[in-house]
Amino acid sequence: MEGMTKDKVEETRELEWALIPPREVSQVDGIVLEKNICNTWDKVWNFQAKPDDLLIASYPKAGTTWTQEIVDLIQNNGDIENSRRAPIQLRQPFLEWFRRVTPGIDQANAMSSPRTLKTHLPVQLLPPSFWEKNCKIIYVARNAKDNMVSYYYFQKMNKALPEPGSWDEYFETFMSGKVMWGSWFDHVKGWWKKKDSHPILYLFYEEMMKDPKRVIRKVMEFLGKNLKEEVLDKIVYNTSFDVMKKNPMTNYINDPEMNHNLSPFMRKGVIGDWKNQFTEAQNKRFNEEYEKHMADTSLSFCMEL
């Protein structure tokens, strides 16, 4: 697009995005996934993890990219230039995702150790080799209301995901657990329970927002690193929402399947934005369903500041 005006570039991107056919979905054990993932599920399920693999797991739009960048900077001792060596999706392959160029599984298999990988799979669909090799896992969870709103806008701008329909329609889809990667309730509870028997660091998006340095230190200790305070401060700054939103290595600005004019990949990054989206009736119904679904767990979330 060299020689084109900014407006012309945007117009061309809009047209290209509009021509991309939406991806189809299917299911694995009742969990909605992109059809290519389902068609190659044996390859995903039989993936061979290594003992020194680190896995970053989450429900979609729960702070995954944020956690990935924190981890990468800790692993590289706060070296900012090194963390900008490539887009985050190339540095840390999305395990089950079927990219148009290279599937995440193939990316991971081509990487030398130690590897850091990403997944949105619910705990029951994670390849067994991760448990067998006792790999360290970092899981990040976000309160369901904000997570739902963020996921809705993400589906609107991302052709790799199903069209979400109206907000009212999406609310019903989310509540029934028929979104990609399944029910939020089952996802966060499943991983919470698994941490009792496996080396899993369970993080909360809201804690990361309130006290990022404390959480970054927690991740550092989990990874067995010991960085100086000034390095931690540097990581806090470079993983702040405003900095990451402008960083082309983390903001997916060049992903052809994402229309950032509809909604940026990194949209607001706040706690309590659900109040701008939920109707009073939806909030009442959600609270009632939430109490039922979460009655059997000690897991609790902060819904607002």
TrEMBL record:
UniProtKB keywords: Cytoplasm, Transferase
InterPro entries: P-loop_NTPase (IPR027417), Sulfotransferase_dom (IPR000863)
GO molecular function, one term: aryl sulfotransferase activity
Keyword Hydrolase in annotation: no
Origin: domain of life: Eukaryota
GO biological process terms, semicolon-separated: sulfation
EC number: 2.8.2.-
Class of this enzyme: transferase
Reactions mediated catalytically: 4-ethylphenol + 3'-phosphoadenylyl sulfate = 4-ethylphenyl sulfate + adenosine 3',5'-bisphosphate + H(+)
Pfam families xref list: Sulfotransfer_1
Record domain Sulfotransferase: where: 51-297
UniProt main location, coarse: cytoplasm
Compartment(s): Cytoplasm
GO CC aspect terms: cytoplasm
Keyword match Cell membrane: no
Family according to the record: Belongs to the sulfotransferase 1 family.
Protein name: Sulfotransferase
Protein source organism: Hipposideros armiger
